[in-house]
From TrEMBL, chains A, B:
SMART domains: HTH_ASNC
Phylogenetic placement of the source organism: Bacteria, Pseudomonadati, Pseudomonadota, Alphaproteobacteria, Rhodospirillales
This protein's record includes keyword DNA-binding: yes
Name of the featured protein: Lrp/AsnC family transcriptional regulator
PROSITE patterns in UniProt: HTH_ASNC_1 (PS00519), HTH_ASNC_2 (PS50956)
Keywords: DNA-binding, Transcription, Transcription regulation
Pfam families tied to this protein: AsnC_trans_reg (PF01037), HTH_24 (PF13412)
InterPro entries per the UniProt record, alphabetical: ArsR-like_HTH, AsnC-type_HTH_dom, Dimeric_a/b-barrel, Tscrpt_reg_AsnC-like, Tscrpt_reg_AsnC/Lrp_C, Tscrpt_reg_HTH_AsnC-type_CS, WH-like_DNA-bd_sf, WH_DNA-bd_sf
Chain ranges of the HTH asnC-type domain: 4-67
DNA sequence: AGTGAAAAAGGTTCCGA
DNA sequence: TCGGAACCTTTTTCACT
């Protein structure tokens, strides 16, 4: 479970931008031949540095024109309530992220929907009917100036 | 700019999970031979449905143990101030996302840092010294229950 | 850990349906 | 638009440094 050397970091930086790059090209870019590059890549995957690879879609292009962040405060923090609330959220495809946070609310969720109608339907029909919710506060995304999946690597 | 048929959608769904899948395997999974599958994939890329491919790293594993969301309210909405503020944020690697939002604040940003020290340094040394900022409100992420890059595809 | 060559697997192009 | 064959590239394996 050794450390990452500068070549590993270089590889990770490149792979965060070009997830489908051929290992031969990756090898060129980090100054290695194909064999050790493939070995390192496998190690980075096996040791859990790389979780997986994803195609990044253009949300608007595929019919998801609206995004929102919703702060949620629970009224009841009983373990059972919290667990039920969480698993209900996690099951939904349109809830793309769920964070437990500090501050004035308990959870921050990131929702994607086709349009305002779909979003308000989610909020009123689904979210507000979940047990244990005290209040919610929605922030609709007007524009996405940046949305990296990339983790900063010093 | 034609529509996406059910095979295209299937391909996109698979690619959101397995961004590095071989096109022959993708072809098998959608019931096509390699040639038309590769052609469709190229079209999805060229027409902007697929923005790119990314390796997804484990943040903790690569030294980014702390995430936070920060709501930012500007005091001065002059175009120049807003533009300067935005470009300063966009330049920073540790600011992984920037959204302009509705509601009580103007921007929501997603920050990744090694630890609390690094985060508080960012807030006090960088963020609060930016011109035009009226106030900020940080929510530190206690746990990530879900963080999909995937866009929901009906 | 890295290299280079050979075998296997995957990707691309062209043509016919 | 699809499928198949030929051709080319990439990946993997292996012997060696």
């Amino acid at each position: 479970m050794s450390e990452l050397d500068s070549i590993d970091l270089k590889m990770l930086r490149i792979l965060q931008r070009e997830g489908r790059i051929a290992t031969t090209d990756l090898a060129d870019q980090v100054g290695l031949s194909a064999t050790p590059c493939a070995r390192r890549l496998k190690r980075l995957e096996d040791d859990g540095y790389i979780r997986g690879y994803r195609a990044v879609l253009d949300p608007k292009r595929v019919g998801c024109g609206l995004q929102a962040f919703i702060n949620i405060r629970l009224g009841d923090h009983a373990e059972k309530t919290v667990a039920a609330f969480q698993s209900a959220l996690l099951r939904r495809q349109d809830v793309v992220a769920v964070y437990a946070i500090t501050g004035s609310s308990d959870f921050l969720i990131h929702v994607m929907a086709a349009d305002l109608d779909a979003l308000s339907e989610f909020t009123t029909r689904t979210l507000l009917r979940m047990p244990g919710i005290r209040d919610t506060q929605s922030s609709i995304v007007l524009s996405v100036l940046k949305a990296e999946t990339a983790v900063p690597l010093a």
